[in-house]
Amino acid sequence: MIPPDTIQKILDATHIEEVVSEFVSLHRRGANYVGCCPFHNEKTPSFSVSPSRGIFKCFGCGEAGNAVHFLMKHEHFSYPDALRYLANKYGIEIQEKELTPEERQSQTERDTLFHVSEFAQKHFADQLYNNEDGRNVGLAYFYERQLSDEVIKKFGLGYCLDQWEVFTKYALANGYSEEALVKSGLTIKKEDGEHLLYDRFRGRVMFPVFNASGRVLGFSGRVLTSDKQRAKYVNSPDSEIYNKSLTLYGIFQAKNAIAKQDLCYLVEGNIDVISMYQSGIENTVASCGTSLTREQVRLIKRYTHNVTLMYDGDPPGIKAAIKAIDLLLSEGMKVRVVLFPDNDDPDSYAKKYGSEQIQDFVKNNATDFVRFKTGILMADTAGDPIRISEAASEMVNTIALVGDMMERSESIRECASIMKISEQDIAQGVAKAIMRNKEKAFNDAQKAAENHSSEQPTTDTDKELESHDTDNPSNSTDKHQFLTSFFPCEEQEKKIISLLLNHGNRTITQAAKDENGNDILEEYYVAAIVVGEILGDNIKFDNPLYQSIFDEYAEQLQQNNLLSDQHFVNHPDEIVRTLAATLLSQPYTISDKWSEKYNISVPSPDDKNVVEHDVHDSILNLKMKKLEQKITEAKEELKNATYSENLTILLGQIKQYENIKMAIGKELNRVIS
């Protein structure tokens, strides 16, 4: 659907660090950027982004690729949708034909759900301003809540008319299938009676839920009548694209402010988010009609480790805040709490006092979790020693979740001071709680490992490969061992491909003869040397993936073309793209402090002499390994040989191979036995 020249234009314009930083908090480290991987849970950053290469690589779980791959993996985009996202970001126009109703119906279910949700959001937003009922009911409600037109449009708010099937009929007329409407939750289907298909959100103001990249996942609809038979809020049911426990309301609008301020405010309701945003506190999100979940905390963690809870000051709000504190701490977050006076919430407080005062209130009244939670617990003890002991036990369990040792020590001191309990007693209780937590985590991990092991297939090779998934860091060693057993020359072959990707279009010096037979030094491309040596000795790769990449190099060299690393980073084959990104990523960088502090000179892997040596040794190492394979195969044949003529030939081959092996070993300065 998108022309190849437009795709190339998009890829050329894309800056991967700008794309990834919209979803992951990145910090510069040398020429690259690092952050915590969004594809697996980690506390120490192992996720690296290389602007010069245009790639990302996680050295924990193994995920790697370019900006398109990142969006496909992180946002579950299709390949065309990832390109469209980048085109929109960089202002590149895409000329593609409009989808027909038949083509819409033939799209994958996931893409269809995204498209119908975005279609619905635009429809509801249009009804809010351009329909009389929309203006008189929906827009009037938002104005009553003192929301500006700017913020209404910023959050994509809308209105679903209070009629049974207006939206459903409109969507069907625009080519969306009944199945897609029902699966998205926008339409409800009955088996009999009147209105077999009808709008789920009829007569409600609409709050679309966006993911971090701005795609519509689902909706929350609020009824405006006093009808007790109708629920105040109705949310989209879980679907292929929407799971309310995995996303946060307002994350798309708040993510940049969260990363910039290194702080996230967490509130309870949609209107709270919007009011805070309008008041200038843009780094605010809310859980989507559910208690805070671990997945939602990890979503916040991509942008900051600092969270301030701003829940309602009523008993349910306080209970939710106490529960959220433990969850946040267990994920390594730093937690503070703001309680509003007189049972106010962020929305009502902003309306009473205005933008400036709520910003000052939030800034001046945020308290650490210890002071907040001990205050709540001690208020219920009434001086009863047993209840004080129970409160202390609960605080001990909470403080044990703090990962940083210095912060934990300070929390222990503060807790002991407020509760008038010995600091040593609190510290001992925390130490015991930490041991219990570690023991539980170990037992849980052991059970999970046993379950995983019992589920692993043992016969089918494809399933065996699939079970060694690099998405799971614990499987990376297993995968390497499996590949090595399946492809004996795995390490040597991978090294050759790595040389081609990293240095193929660089020149290095090689010894040669001039037309008179004199020794001279000539400059050759690394790709030409490597491909020439491999083809010259008729070496084939055991791993078909490596062979396919090598063949592309060889084919292009025969046409006097050099392939850049970006050719494979942007390759149409996802497996090739991922491998290229992995081999182009360096797991470490050499610090300048070595030479500054210790006067030690450490050569860079990109140094010309290092590359020359690497090319020389890597080619010889592959040849050595292939020879060892041939010797092993010949010896196996020798065991089964029956005719003396065959025995003589095989013995001669083995002797020849071993002589060559000795010569290569000598050139590598190795002792060959």
The percent range for strand residues is: 5-15%
Rg, nearest Å? 32 Å
* First-residue to last-residue Cα separation: 60 Å
- What is the arithmetic mean of pLDDT? 84
Shape: globular
Count the E strands. Answer: 19
- Tally the helices: what do you get? 30
Short description:
Helix content is 55%, strand content 12%. It contains 30 helices and 19 strands. Strands 12-14-13-15-16-17 form a 6-stranded mixed beta sheet, sandwiched between helices. The protein has a 5-stranded antiparallel beta sheet with strand order 1-2-3-4-5. Strands 6-9-10-11 form a 4-stranded antiparallel beta sheet, sandwiched between helices.
What report would you give on this structure?
The protein is an alpha+beta fold and 673 residues long. It has 30 helices and 19 strands. The strands form 5 sheets. Strands 12-14-13-15-16-17 form a 6-stranded mixed β-sheet, sandwiched between helices. Strands 1-2-3-4-5 form a 5-stranded antiparallel β-sheet. Residues 456-479 have low confidence and may be disordered.
Secondary structure elements and their pairing?
Blueprint: H1 4-13, H2 16-20, E1 27-29, E2 32-35, E3 47-50, E4 55-58, E5 64-65, H3 67-75, H4 79-89, H5 101-106, H6 109-130, H7 132-144, H8 149-154, E6 158-160, H9 166-173, H10 178-184, E7 187-189, E8 197-199, E9 204-210, E10 216-223, E11 233-235, E12 248-249, H11 251-261, E13 264-267, H12 270-278, E14 284-287, H13 294-301, E15 306-309, H14 315-330, E16 334-337, H15 346-353, H16 355-365, E17 367-368, H17 369-379, H18 385-399, H19 405-419, H20 423-455, H21 461-467, H22 476-486, H23 490-503, E18 507-513, E19 519-525, H24 526-536, H25 544-558, H26 565-569, H27 574-584, H28 593-598, H29 608-640, H30 644-667
Parallel strand pairs: 13-14, 13-15, 15-16
Antiparallel strand pairs: 1-2, 2-3, 3-4, 4-5, 6-9, 7-8, 9-10, 10-11, 12-14, 16-17, 18-19
